[in-house]
Amino acid sequence: MPAKYTHVDFADHVKRVVEEIVVKKGLDALIVASPPNIFYLVGSDAPSAVVLFSDSSVRTLSSRLEYTRALDEARLGEHFVFSKSEDVCEYENIVKGDFYEALASLVKGSREGRLGAAGFSPEALRKLEEKVGGGVADVTADFKLVRRSKDPSEIAAIRAAVHVAERALAKALGNLERGVTEAEIAAIIASEIIKSGAELAFPPIVAFGEHAAHPHAKPGLRRLKDGDLVKIDLGARVEGYCSDITRTVAFGKAGENEKRVFNAVLRAQEEALALLKAGVEAREAHMRAYEVLKSEGLSKYFNHGLGHGVGVEIHEDPSLNAESQAKLVHGDVVTVEPGVYVHRVGGVRIEDMALVLEGRAELLTSFPKRLEV
Amino acid sequence: MPAKYTHVDFADHVKRVVEEIVVKKGLDALIVASPPNIFYLVGSDAPSAVVLFSDSSVRTLSSRLEYTRALDEARLGEHFVFSKSEDVCEYENIVKGDFYEALASLVKGSREGRLGAAGFSPEALRKLEEKVGGGVADVTADFKLVRRSKDPSEIAAIRAAVHVAERALAKALGNLERGVTEAEIAAIIASEIIKSGAELAFPPIVAFGEHAAHPHAKPGLRRLKDGDLVKIDLGARVEGYCSDITRTVAFGKAGENEKRVFNAVLRAQEEALALLKAGVEAREAHMRAYEVLKSEGLSKYFNHGLGHGVGVEIHEDPSLNAESQAKLVHGDVVTVEPGVYVHRVGGVRIEDMALVLEGRAELLTSFPKRLEV
């Protein structure tokens, strides 16, 4: 872990959500579902819901299966467990009923029209409304917006996750040798990340040669040959926060065409990165990379968006693509990952993570970008 | 891989779905979404949808991002790609528009009221209906039922996934030594599974001592001490099919209480397993395990359902729990995994997989169940 890494300040997240949503919308209580939202508030994804009240008090509600994990992991809140069965351990805060009935009990006393919810599907929201006996305002979009601006403690966790990923990437590249399989390299990455106590942010992608033509290739038993391009995309999760980085290298000497494509992707990435700052349209960054690749005759092979937000989730708001409506905000952490993929031939992707600030962006990843290693 | 492992017969899945759903419901076409359903039909989760027609023809529809992977991975079907952009590679089967517009093009000519869909969320189904200009029957439940009865080729894939998991489990247990961390053991498991070319069916659970009290503990930096219980839950995915197995062992000599709990959980598991056969209520198997644990005064610590179906998904139908309405069918593959969890003390879970047959069930897992190793 880098020396400056400290624990994430979950209490500050609660404060921000209460200020930005509960108070501004005049809510008595906000009911929050979905594991990333729940983790964001209390530092554990064990509860099934978290309820924030206008007086800033916090209650979590867990199934019996996850209740003790909520008790041990959550950094704040008063913890409740729901159960339909009578045959339960002697916990203090048992709420009788199913999930929705228990939620209705927890928010009893809230006034009609003063309840909000974030992270519920439309069906789940209907069930909730049925049990609380009235309308519940869906503030999912507001919640997503609050989550976008990472605070210094979250940036520190993301930096720690980058550190773990870059160390695993170095080890993976150090183990490239003729005849090794994609799966063997992926196993090294997974082992490095997990044994550090981190989680895999996603299953690592290791693709040799023609397999690199698939943006989401799965590591298989393809063996490494001289002249192959090697595409590695990996990420770790440290204290709930993700990293995401991709490098493409040539095993042995790169051909002229590989060099041309690599340099075009690198230039597309660097020009897009240079654009990032608070207030810029996410679409604009995507289009810059697209135009660079177009000038090289490669844009038709760039078959995905430029990047995405990263935080508690490996893919979160904002999306950086041709159809994005988002404007970048101070504190956004985003990937910038143009790629060129030619079916049956190969592919090149270069991906870094950047922190969006006023007037500029800061790279969070620092691994060298060289085709030949 | 065990010698008898052969490839999954996806064409037979298409045939079954056409016979059981398309023909029986009088549909012209069935539009299937969600990665596990898509994988079940064509052997790749790259497409965004698969369309089955009443003449048994199959079309897949992919995003540009995933199209070449669909071309390379899918075992059957005619493959289409949707794109709103004009700047696309010279693929043969480009359908102009977004996902829903492209689906509407693919099923053009189907008669009003003769379209079905499986695996769509209610919102997605509404969007689909808007683009096709009429009602679409939701046959998601029928599709799930077809997927439950595993055929011999699927059983073979699951056996291969069990083999990979049991080998990783043996290696994990062989590496238990004083001072090793949960994360180090989890890394060994992940490495073993991934380097074989399989995927992780889920992140392995390795929990020492008091951490084993959490059914879904996450491996951390807790070090192994003499007398700790060690709970390990792991699974592999081979050719898209999952395995799932849990063992609990004592590191060093087990205490009398650990032995009593272990033996109660084992007896609960064995009695539940002995009940399994086609036609039995899933709830009945759960209640048998519950009653065994109740007779030992341990039922309040059994805080989850007895088990779940396993196949393309690590958790699929049927659920075996106190509220299950399902009856077991021939070809169901289910876990049987009672557990006893005592907060701040520890936990014991023993999990095997069984294939449900007429009149009996067959264990698919064969790893020894011994507290002291």
How would you sum up this structure, described in words?
- The structure is a homodimer of 373-residue chains.
- Chain A is an alpha+beta fold and 373 residues long.
- Chain A folds into two domains: 10-147, Creatinase/prolidase N-terminal domain (Creatine Amidinohydrolase, Chain A, domain 1), CATH 3.40.350.10; 152-363, Creatinase/methionine aminopeptidase superfamily (Creatine Amidinohydrolase, Alpha-Beta Complex).
- In chain A, 35% of the residues lie in helices and 22% in strands.
- Chains A and B meet through helix 3, helix 8 and strand 8 of A and helix 3, helix 8 and strand 8 of B.
Blueprint (SSEs and pairs):
2 copies of one chain form a homodimer.
Chain A: H1 10-23, E1 29-32, H2 35-42, E2 49-53, E3 58-62, H3 64-73, E4 78-83, E5 94-96, H4 99-106, E6 115-118, H5 122-132, E7 137-138, H6 140-148, H7 152-174, H8 182-195, E8 199-200, E9 205-208, E10 229-234, E11 236-238, E12 241-242, E13 245-250, H9 256-275, H10 282-295, E14 307-309, E15 316-320, E16 333-336, E17 339-342, E18 346-349, E19 352-357, E20 360-363
Parallel strand pairs in A: 1-6, 3-4, 4-5, 6-7
Antiparallel strand pairs in A: 1-2, 2-3, 8-11, 9-10, 10-13, 11-12, 14-15, 16-19, 17-18, 19-20
Helix pairs in contact in A: 1-6, 4-5, 7-8, 9-10
How do you describe this structure in short?
The first copy, chain A, is built from ten helices and 20 strands.
Question: Proportion of β residues of chain A?
Answer: 15-25%
Q: How many structural domains can be distinguished in the coordinates of chain A?
A: 2
CATH architecture of the largest domain in chain A: Alpha-Beta Complex
Gross geometry of chain A: elongated
The number of helices of chain A is 10
Give the C-alpha Rg of chain A.
23 Å
Would you count the extended β strands of chain A for me?
20
Regarding quaternary structure, how should these chains be classified?
homodimer
Indicate the CATH class of the largest domain in chain A. Alpha Beta
SSE run of chain A: HEHEEHEEHEHEHHHEEEEEEHHEEEEEEE
Q: How helix-rich are the residues of chain A, as a percent range?
A: 25-40%
The rounded distance between the terminal residues' Cα atoms of chain A is 26 Å
